[in-house]
């Protein structure tokens, strides 16, 4: 019983360590802040550069908070990338839900490519780091599979299942080309590609 008591006290201290035993105000957003800081670290130095210490510094939290919320680096990475995938899926669904008809839906797909997917270098790096992990580890493949399932379901609000799958692939491919191709392409190519698939 005493051991359990000490363990509980240790967890409390790890969560809010302060000098002289004083307690910090409760911080319910700390876990989310750590996840977002982890994503920033991944974007800056890649998955290989992530450590509890580096993320704690980026999140401005005590190192003890890291082990309180995440037992291992792998748990931290998985939860951070799951948070990222969820955020992107939510954004995708909002776009498609707002479309009122087929024309608006095609416009929404174009906006997703132009404005939402890889909207900055950070998201490009995060997505490709997730893809690399998913190529090797089935647990991360579950994240990318769930992401694709949600995207296709959102597209199927307006398109048949085959068209939705083709559009989903086109969104991914066109976004990667726009982000990585050294030659700037005609923005109207996006609308033309969507029209060929879903016209």
Short overview:
The protein is an all-alpha fold and 199 residues long. 76% of the residues lie in helices and 0% in strands.
Describe the fold and architecture.
This protein has 199 residues and is mainly alpha-helical. 76% of the residues lie in helices and 0% in strands. It has helices spanning 2-15, 30-45, 52-59, 63-69, 73-98, 102-116, 121-136, 138-155, 161-180, 188-198. The N and C termini lie far apart (69 Å). 25% of the residues are buried. Mean pLDDT is 86; it is low at 1-24.
SSE order, one letter for each helix or strand = HHHHHHHHHH
User: What's the tally of helices?
Assistant: 10
Beta-strand portion reads: under 5%
| Global morphology | elongated
Uncertain runs are 1-24
Provide mean pLDDT, rounded: 86
What does the largest sheet look like? none
Radius of gyration: 21 Å
What structural class is derived from the secondary structure elements?
A: mainly alpha
Helix content: over 70%
Count of β-strands: 0
What distance separates the N and C termini?
A: 69 Å
Summary tags:
199 residues, mainly alpha, 10 helices, 76% helix, elongated
Topology summary:
Blueprint: H1 2-15, H2 30-45, H3 52-59, H4 63-69, H5 73-98, H6 102-116, H7 121-136, H8 138-155, H9 161-180, H10 188-198
Helix pairs in contact: 1-4, 2-3, 2-5, 2-7, 3-4, 5-6, 5-8, 6-9, 6-10, 7-8, 8-9, 9-10
């Amino acid at each position: 019983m005493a051991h359990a008591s000490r363990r509980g006290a240790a967890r409390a201290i790890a969560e809010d360590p302060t000098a002289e035993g004083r307690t910090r105000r409760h911080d319910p957003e700390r876990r989310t802040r750590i996840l977002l800081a982890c994503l920033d670290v991944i974007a800056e130095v890649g998955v290989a550069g992530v450590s509890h210490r580096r993320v704690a510094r980026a999140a401005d939290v005590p190192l003890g908070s890291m082990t309180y919320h995440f037992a291992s680096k792998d748990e931290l990475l998985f939860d951070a990338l799951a948070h990222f995938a969820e955020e992107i899926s939510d954004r995708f669904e909002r776009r498609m839900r707002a479309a009122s008809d087929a024309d608006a839906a095609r416009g929404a797909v174009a906006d997703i490519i132009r404005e939402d997917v890889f909207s900055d270098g950070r998201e490009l790096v995060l997505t490709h780091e997730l893809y690399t992990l998913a190529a090797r580890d089935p647990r991360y493949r579950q994240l990318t599979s769930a992401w694709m399932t949600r995207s296709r379901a959102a597209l199927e609000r307006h398109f048949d299942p085959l068209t939705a799958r083709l559009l989903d692939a086109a969104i991914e491919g066109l976004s990667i080309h726009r982000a990585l191709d050294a030659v700037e392409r005609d923005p109207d190519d996006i609308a033309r590609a969507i029209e060929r698939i879903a016209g």
